[in-house]
Amino acid sequence: MTDLARLSLNQKTTNSWSLPEAIAGCVRAGIESIGVWREPLAEIGVDRARGLIEDAGLRVSSLCRGGFLTGTGESERAAAIASNVNAILEAAAIGADCLVMVVGGLPEGSRDLPGARDRMRSGIAALVPVAADYGVRLALEPMHPIFTADRGVLATLGEALDIAENFPAEQVGVVVDSFHVWWDPQLEAQVARAGAGNRIASFQVCDWITPLPADTLLSRGMMGDGHIDFRNHFDLVTAAGYTGDIEVEIFNADVWASDPDDVLATMKQRYAECVLPTATTLFADAG
């Protein structure tokens, strides 16, 4: 049997499951780590969630998500900071390795990209002391440029590191998400840079599929269904010193419509075949 010790289920991959169902699914599948989302966490509360996670013996690879710090109005920005403070408290309560930060896109009607990036940077700076007080690491997630307008004005790993390096490494790191960074011609150099500074807070995998669906948010595929060389990414983050969980995060209507237990079985198989350094079969030949 292949080593699944570092494989983590990001809850979005099994979007129809509640958090208790996802926890139970991980246990059935022999998966030891889970990436939690705030909305299903809120449905049951942090106390119950922490109990279920501890009883199941799971690690929490991340809490998704904080961020959306690019708003313009004073009340909007205050609300964003308050929401992120709550996210920090939730991450601390469930023992998450990091709080993933999707920093936000352009405010509605705005074309001021430099201004949005300035507000994003100031928002992160305001949150770092709070996160530090609670022992939570902020993980800045660069997003593919197709999402710059509506989700993430932070588009490259290099830009994320430029911000993270203003703070201690244990307080601010970066997410290496294969889906968002695979295209970057500077990827090797920037992953090495992140490793040198101990900045890799999370490593996420899912595939880039074509043709892209009409809703590009749902364009993440199961590993092996698209164009990404995951073994190369694995080698890069390993050479950079990353030894943490490897989280599978898939937004895909077909995956979401499938039986979640079947999705986990496929996820384990593809992780072995596509991500680990050498192809491995999940189950030994019974014959």
CATH class: Alpha Beta
CATH topology: TIM Barrel
Shape: globular
Task: Give helix and strand order, one letter per element, not per position.
Answer: EHEHHEHEHEHEHHEEEHEHH
**Largest beta sheet: what is the strand line-up?**
1-2-3-4-5-6-7-10
Beta strand count:
10
* Domain module count: 1
Structure notes:
It is a single chain. Strand 3 (59-67), helix 4 (74-94) and strand 4 form a beta-alpha-beta unit. It is globular and about 45 Å long. 43% of the residues lie in helices and 15% in strands. It has one domain (7-275): Alpha-Beta Barrel (TIM Barrel), CATH 3.20.20.150. The two termini are 15 Å apart. Helix 4 packs parallel to helix 5. It is an alpha/beta fold and 287 residues long. The chain has helices at 19-29, 38-44, 46-56, 74-94, 113-133, 157-164, 178-181, 187-196, 230-239, 253-257, 260-275, and strands at 7-10, 33-37, 59-67, 99-102, 138-140, 172-177, 200-205, 207-208, 220-221, 246-248.
How do the strands and helices of this protein lay out in sequence?
Elements: E1 7-10, H1 19-29, E2 33-37, H2 38-44, H3 46-56, E3 59-67, H4 74-94, E4 99-102, H5 113-133, E5 138-140, H6 157-164, E6 172-177, H7 178-181, H8 187-196, E7 200-205, E8 207-208, E9 220-221, H9 230-239, E10 246-248, H10 253-257, H11 260-275
Parallel strand pairs: 1-2, 1-10, 2-3, 3-4, 4-5, 5-6, 6-7, 7-10
Antiparallel strand pairs: 8-9
